[in-house]
Amino acid sequence: MDTLLIDGSRPLRGAIPISGAKNASLPILMATIVAPGEHRLANVPELVDTSSMLSLLGRIGCPSLVGAQTRIDTTRVAFCEAPYDLVRKMRASVLALGPLLARCGEAHVSLPGGCAIGMRPIDQHLKALEALGCRFELEGGYVHGRVDQLRGAEFRFDVVSVTGTENVLMAAVVAEGTTVLENAAAEPEVEDLARFLNACGARIEGAGTSRIVVHGVSSLRASPTAHAILPDRIEAGTYLVAGVITRGDVRCENMRPNDVAPLLDVLRAAGARVECGPDWVSAGAEGRVNAVDVETAPHPGFPTDMQAQVMALLSFAKGTSRIKETIFENRFMHAAELLRLGAQISIEGNVATVTGQPQLSGATVMATDLRASASLVLAGLAAQGRTEVLRLYHLDRGYERLVEKLAAVGASVERGQEGRPRFAAPAVA
Ligand code: EPZ
User: Fold this and answer.
1) CATH tag, 22-228
2) How far does the centroid of ligand 1 lie from the alpha carbon of residue 120, in Å?
3) Which candidate among 88, 171, 248, 366 keeps its CA 20 to 30 Å from the CA of 288?
4) How far separated are the first and last CA of the chain, in Å rounded?
C-alpha cells in the first residue's frame, strides 16, 4: 500500500492553487440525474471519490467523460440502484437516493454503514423524503424507496445534516408544490448544489441559510452552460494550516476567502499571520502559535472537517488548548497517532485537551480517515526528522495532487511503499 514519506521541519513558502470542492462535486454529480441531458461541469477535482461517483453514474446508465470539463449524459437512466460494492467504498453514494426517486420514482440504495468517525445514520434523509411522499423499506442491507408523486411539504431537520439537506433538495425541486426546509445545512457546498439545480430550471431560495424554500417545477433539463464547482474550502484550510505549522507562509489561490472565515478567526486568535485578497488567502507564522480553544459546529461555525488539522497545529502551540467536537461521536482517531509523534493530548468524551510541545519528532503513523490523514501529514511537515504516513488511500479520496502541491512550496514529500526497507546495510567490504 502507498505511504507518504515526509522529511519535516522545513518552512513552506509559496502559492498553492485550490481545486474544486469534493463535497460540492459529489452531490452535483448525482444531481445531473434529476435534469435529463448533457451536462458540463468545470473544476471537478480528480479524486478517488469523484471517480467513484462517476462509476456509479455509469452503473445507472449515465456515461461520462473526464477532461478539461467533466461531461455527463443523463438523457437515459437504465437502473435505479446504488450497489453495495460502490456504496461501501464511498458513503456519499447515499446521495443517489433523492435524485433516483425524483427521476424514476424508485431507488434501491445500499445502506452506507458507519465509518471511522461515527455511525453515520441516514434517518434524517429518510424522514425528509418521507415528508415529500416517499415510502421506504429496509431489506437486505438496502434501503428500497418508492414514490408515486413527490409533493412539497414543510420539514424541520432534527439535526443539521449536509447530505440529508442535499438529498431532499434534489427531490423537492420536481415535487408538486412548495417545500420549506428548516434547520437545513447552510454549508457553501449546499449553496453550490442549489446554484447548479437553479441553472437547470429549479426554483430554490435561501440555500446557504438554515431555511430553504423550494418551489417545485414539473421537470428540469441540463443547462447549456457549464457549471463551475466552487473551490474546496477544506483543502484550502489544510494548506493554510501547513503554512502556519511549518512557520513559513502559504498563499492559497483560486479560492473564496469568506468560506474559510471560521478557520481564519482561529488562526488569528492563535497569533498566526493571515492576509486576504479577493480570491486568495495567505497564512504563516514566525514561531510557535498560542493555544486557542476550538468548538466545531455546522456552518457558519468552525468546520468539523478542519478539526483534525487544527489539532495538529495546536500540538505545537504555547499552552493548552481545548478542542470540542460536536458533530461526530468518534472524530479524535488522529489523536492517538499524533501521540506517536510526541504530542500531549488527552481525550474526555468529546473534548480533547492539547498541551502544546516545542517540538514533535517524526515516526511512522497510520491514517484512519480522510481528515485524520491530513492532520498527520501536517504534523509530519513540522516535526523533526522523517514521518511515514501509512494508508495513503484515505488522502487520495479528498486531496487532488497533494504531493505535487506540497513539493511546489518546499516540502520534502514523496510516495513510498509500505514495508519497503528504509535502512540499507552498509556495503560489505
Ligand atoms: C458531510 O457528511 C460531509 N461529506 C462530511 O465531510 C462532513 O464532515 C459532514 O457533512 C459535516 O459537515 C460530504 O458532504 C460528502 P451530516 P454527512 O449528515 O452529510 C448525524 C469529509 O471529510 N446524522 O451533516 O454525512 C451524523 O451522524 C467528510 O469530506 C444523523 O444523525 O454529515 C453526524 O453526527 C467527512 N442522521 C451529524 O448528523 C442523519 O440522517 C452531521 O452529519 C444524518 C446525519
Assistant:
1) 3.65.10.10
2) 7
3) 366
4) 34
